[in-house]
Write a structure and sequence with these properties.
Shape of chain A: globular
Strand order of the largest sheet of chain A: 7-8-9-10-11-12-13-14
Structural class of chain A: alpha/beta
Number of helices of chain A: 18
Number of strands of chain A: 16
Strand content of chain A: 5-15%
Oligomer: homodimer
Helix content of chain A: 25-40%
CATH topology of the largest domain in chain A: TIM Barrel
Number of domains of chain A: 3
């Protein structure tokens, strides 16, 4: 525990502690928790809760509360993992993950109480209580009940068994498969604490681009070792399973799910896993997409393919997550239409233990997309929304982009399928593609921690405001005296990335493979629908994808069809997503599409410059190490924002031949310069087939 | 600074500080350095020395000495980077890296003095002074002069541009090429400090299995950023250059060094590098070996091939390191003979700025080899000894094996070429293949730090005893109260690995590719001389490689030929290296070769068990985090030692059909079990071609 006179926030910090920093509170001598009381002591989740409370309270208040099975002193903190609630909560029924907090009352020896119907609820309540204390200046004063909106709150690692991480910008995978199960890095416990503190209850350990060796017996034994560490923190492990594993791993001659040998193989494999991990979560499958095998190879639908694996899992209570991010061998008229086209007709055909996992937008985690038309469109299929915390398309680790605003935008969009239905009402869970790695600060940058945090908080309660989550995170991570300026930066950050990479609804404009930097000119990839030119359709006359003509717009509810069907009523931030328009088409600003593009690309650069300037004012308020890294990363971001702007504008201008509007600098270099840039060793490009 | 009552060594430590922990000395109030005095202040190396002294002295003594250009107080520490030495040193001439220390004398206001002929010498003296203080209980009392034996003291990284590390067991490369030159990880400064503290003055940043993109202009700019950080610590950077770079990077039609375009390409490339990095060290080249291109593709010798690159470097003072680890397309009678066979005839044909870099043994960093016959055999060629700190063949990161003893064994072997000539007299430098990565503890395990340390200390003074170096390292790393038990463990550790992986001079018995675990049965690789069976020649009658018959023994001096030519006079630890002997051949112990093998394999396992037991007694003397990791790694080592023993014995026994000697357990499993083990994701196997 630090007791020096220097303000704790100004000591160098490396970010390892995340939002669980538990610094001594300035007013710590006005608070007291004398003991932590619980009449159960053998439950591992309760033990984890007690240990975390002791750790956090000792650090924040300056004295360590002892554990006691009964109240013997004033100012106790009671943990009650039972259905019997005291006082005001007597008639409450809580779901098994919820918790309730009763502030201290004089008549009860000044005790505080965390109640829940399960030890898991108590664990969440404990982290909640510590968070309130970290952020606040007093113990929480009001009775609070909190229950998660979704039962599935999940982190998806895209981690390969060789410790590379697909789309990972934070070092190696934290799973050291080589040393497992013999050596458990203590870091895994801190990972579990961090997840539990924000309500994450499920993690997929391996890459959706799955290697069938994930299901090898030795990998399962290693997975068990991880599961044993995560279990006391209420976290279940999942693995990715490759559809062709029966052939590749089981030496069968086919993986056709109609073949009894294949069905038996899955049953035996699942049974083997549950022998090791009785609470194993289940599988995540990417099938018939980007080279992954799947049921279509046997003329079967996704639903038919899912059945064999789901049936194997069902007796054990296991869940099958089946990804809707698909595209088959045929080049589609519109890639954006594919998930809906494949999965809408299958509604009702999946078993009960299958969740179809749908990306937030119809294409692929772009900085801005409309919501996926599947949300609200299926009645009998459980959906999970997949978002990407790792910033594959938003600047890797070195660009500051808070994604809470992006996810909030999607979650709170009305589907218009039913009255008052928002996208958030159409799903049973949220899965976030991990940005976690072995870098000391976990996420490759300090600000990317906020996206892990927001993922957990929004999966617990998707009605929360992104601003409020940012406020919490900054307060916990940097201290409450800098929340205003830093939250302001965060709230503008994603829109800046949209501006400098793809304004007005443009999308999928990045370089090939690693996706680092701009490549709007790319037109020579093996599949047409991998090329940026497929997505922007720009030529000398105009730009944008006409999704009215393509029919894709009909995947949305009538209200959206009307609004998005006409460029005049389409929100400008999605304009070129839905319409192909002449360069001269006039926008609300009075500027033409071309002029508006120049304006918005430039605005993105200016915003980064402004953010960088604002950050520089925090030099005395943020510890030197984190201050410096953020400052240096913002310098990179400014340089790369300019690169995106200039490369993109040079390309658009090469098509339309229009002059640059007055007051705006033309690109610094000719188009050929930008087209010649290569980054063969940019990180994250580790497909394993 | 820690001022708690708990002994500092018992606070959890993660190993990041290496041997520069600078803990408050128990007797700190009996010491005083009032100020650090130097009349030069603009030299970056002196600034680095002053900063390190302030950091270390403040932490160890509890007060920070201020910098002053002149002595104004008693108890100053004088830094004198000039040729004019005070008092007892008046007539001394120091080489430019040496330093001298004068203990405090009453007549000089109680000042201590570090003198040198250069700021670099002062820097080394500063680290030396801090080390004495860390280890000791008082300021050094005697006049000390220290000069490095070799001018080249080098770390060779085998780091790829994508941050994988060939034979790396400590995470990713610490060079983040993607973010360079914009972002410099502060860790690079700590890396420089650690190297300077042990006298390392050169680092090769990239893998010898070179990618020609190492020489791309953008990589050079990134390299400059690293060079700028390392320069104040007296460290020069080198790169690996691929012989075919003129074609691959320069778009020439050939890389034939006789072609003027090729010569010009090298000149321009070298010139471009020196524009960025005026003190660039030079290149390391692996040519015509394991698929790397080289001059033999053009019918030229290594010397002829080296000429074009060396000539390009010469005007700038650059050095070319040319590796003698070669094997061409022909399968040799004896791979162990190749380096000598290729390079002995070239003696005198290399330019002055070429160093031929020779592995310590004739094959490949095996746990035990005789010294390479090139040492002492060439007169007009400068040699550098290459050793491997990363434990490719000694258990990766999880086995405890201190390599100081192994390197000492080679360095202090008499060549018998000239009277009193030891191997250490035949070289101009030492290059150690790095075990450094981005893991928090740098080396993947706490004990592997000792090999980095020993590399530096032995390159400074190869006459030092490995035990003394271990003593220093333990004292600095774990504290002086545990030196005896830990040094005892370290001193026995390498021999234990020899015993359980390849006793009696057996060699090259590991699994294919990743080299993890035993594979003595492997016999199906593309080249005969990649197979363990090629090296051990075991059959039902006997085992060992007859290097008398092969003629290889004639590469050594006559004295060695006599000694090693007869199994009766060959040291038993190299017996089967030089001789093929019947299984029944009787050894000094009275045991047959077969019985002795069983005995030694078992002894290796028993030694690991004993070491693990001894470590367990240190639980109260080593901080909990390092204690636990070492304990868990020793558990892995014991398991794997048993694996090595059992797999190897099962295989030898399958050949000789002999019974297991009484008192020794047979392998736990049948041979087929061991042959069926696969570890497709074992780390470190990242050849880039």
């Amino acid at each position: 525990m630090e007791t020096t006179a220097t303000p704790p926030s100004l000591k160098p910090e490396d970010g390892y502690e995340l939002w669980l920093r538990y610094r001594l509170l300035p007013s710590h001598d006005q608070f007291k928790i004398s003991q932590i009381v619980c009449n159960e002591s053998s439950d591992p989740l309760l033990s984890a809760a007690v240990a975390e409370l002791q750790r956090g309270l000792e650090a924040m208040l300056g004295h360590r509360p002892e554990f006691s099975p009964v109240v013997t002193q004033d100012h106790a903190l009671l943990l009650q993992p039972s259905q019997v609630y005291p006082g005001a909560l007597a008639h409450l029924t809580l779901n098994h993950e919820a918790f309730a907090y009763l502030p201290k009352r004089a008549e009860e020896r000044q005790s505080h109480t965390i109640s829940a119907s399960s030890s898991r609820g108590v664990l969440y309540g404990a982290f909640w209580f510590l968070r309130q204390l970290q952020m606040g200046t007093a113990f929480p004063q009001t009775l609070t009940v909190s229950a998660p909106s979704y039962s599935l709150r999940m982190v998806n690692h895209w981690d390969n068994l060789n410790r590379t991480v697909e789309r990972g910008y934070a070092g190696q995978s934290i799973w050291d498969w080589h040393k497992l199960p013999d050596y458990i890095d203590p870091r895994i416990i801190d990972y579990a604490r961090a997840n539990a503190s924000i309500g994450i209850n499920s993690v997929v350990l391996t890459n959706v681009n799955a290697n069938s060796m994930v299901l090898r017996s030795d990998t399962i034994v290693k997975t068990r070792a991880i599961a044993d560490v995560l279990r006391p923190y209420g976290i279940k492990v999942f693995l990715t399973s490759r559809f062709s594993a029966p052939e590749e791993l089981g030496n069968l001659t086919t993986s056709d799910p109609r073949v009894p040998d294949v069905q038996q193989w899955w049953c035996k494999k699942v049974s083997e896993i549950y022998d090791q991990i009785p609470d194993f979560g289940g599988f995540l499958v990417k099938a018939n997409s980007e080279g992954q095998p799947g049921p279509q190879s046997y003329g079967l639908s996704h639903a038919e393919g899912a059945r064999v694996i789901a049936d194997a899992l069902a007796p054990f209570g296991g869940v099958l997550l089946w990804r809707a991010f698909v595209y088959d061998d045929q080049i589609p008229v519109d890639r954006a239409a594919q998930a809906y086209a494949e999965f809408k007709p299958l509604d009702g055909l999946f078993q009960e233990n299958v969740f179809v996992q749908v990306k937030n937008g119809p294409i692929d985690f772009q900085p801005r997309e409309p919501f996926s038309p599947l949300f609200g469109a299926v009645d009998e299929t459980s959906l999970v929304m997949e978002v990407q915390a790792t910033k594959e398309y938003l600047g890797f680790a070195s660009h500051l982009a808070y994604l809470g605003t992006m996810w909030e935008e999607v979650l709170k969009t009305p589907t218009q399928q039913r009255p008052a239905e928002l996208v958030l009402h159409t799903i049973k869970g949220v899965a976030g593609v991990s940005n976690i790695g072995s870098d000391r600060n976990w996420c490759g940058s300090h600000f990317d921690q906020s996206n892990w945090y927001a993922l957990g908080r929004l999966s617990w309660d998707p009605t929360q405001e992104a601003r409020e989550i940012a406020n919490e995170w900054v307060s916990l991570t940097f201290g409450s005296d800098v929340t205003d300026p830093i939250v302001s930066i965060m709230m503008r950050s994603r829109e800046a990335v949209v501006d400098y990479t793809g304004p007005l609804g443009l999308t999928h404009l990045m370089a090939t493979g690693h996706h680092y930097g701009p490549g709007p000119w790319v037109n020579d990839l093996d599949r047409a629908d991998w090329n940026p030119t497929y997505f922007h359709r720009a030529n000398k006359d105009g730009i944008g994808f006409d999704r009215v003509a393509s029919g894709t717009i009909q995947q949305y509810a009538a209200g959206w069809q009307i609004l998005w069907g006409d460029p005049k009523t389409t929100p400008e931030n999605l304009l070129l997503w839905f319409h192909h328009l002449p360069w001269s088409y006039e926008l609300k600003s009075g500027r033409s599409v071309w002029e508006e593009l120049v304006y918005r690309y430039s605005r993105g650069v200016a915003e980064v410059k402004a953010i960088r300037q604002e950050w520089s004012h925090l030099t005395s308020k943020v510890d030197p190490d984190r201050f410096t890294q953020v400052a240096e990363f913002l310098k990179i971001q400014e340089k790369e924002a300019l690169w995106w702007r200039d490369a993109s504008l040079a390309y658009w201008q090469s098509l339309n031949g229009l002059p640059y509007p007055e007051g705006f600098d033309p690109p610094q270099m000719p188009l050929e310069y930008y087209q010649g840039i290569t980054h063969p060793f940019a990180p994250g490009n580790t497909h394993t087939g």
